[in-house]
Amino acid sequence: MRSRRRAFTLIELLVVIAVIALLVGILLPALGQARKAARATACLSNLRQMGTGLVQYNNDHKEAVVPSYNMVGTNGDTPLDGWGPILDRDGYIGAPEQNKKSVFYCPDTYDVAGVATGQTGSDPNNPKGWLDWPFIRTGNSNDPVTIPELGFDKIIRVSYWINADNPIGGVVTFTPDLFYTSSVGYGPVGKGPFMRATRLRAFERPHTLIALADGLYAGRQRDNQIGMTNSRIGYRHPGSGGGNANVAFADGHCAPLGGKSFPRALGGNNNPAEVRAENSNGKPTVYANPERVFDN
Which domain holds residue 120? Predict the structure, then answer.
């Protein structure tokens, strides 16, 4: 007698499909979180490489810190080279032209020219974007340009922020050695000095001084917590308070900081007592020497 093969019933098929759908529903969010964690880890790896490059630059330049950029005068009407292209040109960290897979580009970067109009404004996506270096200021826009006579023969896409004093676009007084680095060559203001390179001796505690972070451009330290207008810090990674920004410190080590715990600088509508608390007691700080700032 011919044996009769038993087939699945419709109910059994529906049960199997339902189980598979349930498993997919459970696993997809976990896979998504795993991918986000992997990208955050890759970002930290980028920052470690850049932090190492910064330290090597210090060692090779008699403890001078890499400039945020070099400039002439106060208005930025000459091309601004930028710390990323400087590290690339001088052999500390290599990068292909306008490439999204370089060390200078966080894997979670939004494909947005974050300061296309000069500021990030109130759009929360802009600080998560990128800026092309070198560039020249044209009105309120930052237009990428090469500087072949100085060895900058390519445009580098950068999605990290450097903790710098960059008072470009106006004539304002400045305090030397206030932040991690500066816009070397800015000035003079009245009979004052030009900005010069910051040196390591200005750092009170390098292990707490923020050098680089997720974000773009430089400066605006007073506005760098999540949700603030014109913030340049990009909170791209999962974390409390709306997200984390990965940070490299002046001594080269790296760690994430939450959107509400990133230290601000004095200025704007910030409460001085709150700013002091954010930058004191061994916490991460934007100031090269917090005691000098708050005890004066």
Answer: 38-294
DSSP for the chain? -PPPPPPPPHHHHHHHHHHHHHHHHHHHHHHHHHHHHHHHHHHHHHHHHHHHHHHHHHHHTTTBPPPSEEEEESS--S-B--HHHHHHHTTSS---TT-TTSTTS-TT--SSBTTTTSS-TT-TTGGGSBEEESEEEETTEEEE--BGGGTB-S-EEE-EEE-EE--TTS-----TT-SSEEEEEE---TT-PPP---BGGG-S-TTTBEEEEEBSSB--GGG-STT-TT--B---B--GGG-EEEEEETTS-EEEEETTTSPP-S-TT--HHHHHHHT-TT--BS-SSHHHHH--
Position 104: which residue type? Answer: F
In a domain, 219, yes or no: yes
Is residue 78 pLDDT above 90, yes or no?
no
- Is 29 inside a domain boundary? no
The torsion angles phi and psi of 156, rounded to 5 degrees, stand at -115, 125
The residues that bridge with 213 in the sheet, in sequence order, are 161, 247
Do the strands 181-186 and 69-73 form a parallel or antiparallel pair, or are they unpaired? parallel
pTM above 0.90, yes or no: no
pLDDT band at 29 (very low <50, low <70, confident <90, very high): low
8 Å CB contact between 135 and 82: yes
User: b vs e for 56-79, b when ≥16 Cβ sit within 10 Å of the residue's Cβ?
Assistant: bbbeeeeebbbbbbbbeebebeeb
- The number of folded domains in the chain is 1
Position 28 in a domain:
no
Q: Which two tokens stand for residue 218?
A: 């430089």
**Does residue 27 sit within a domain?**
no
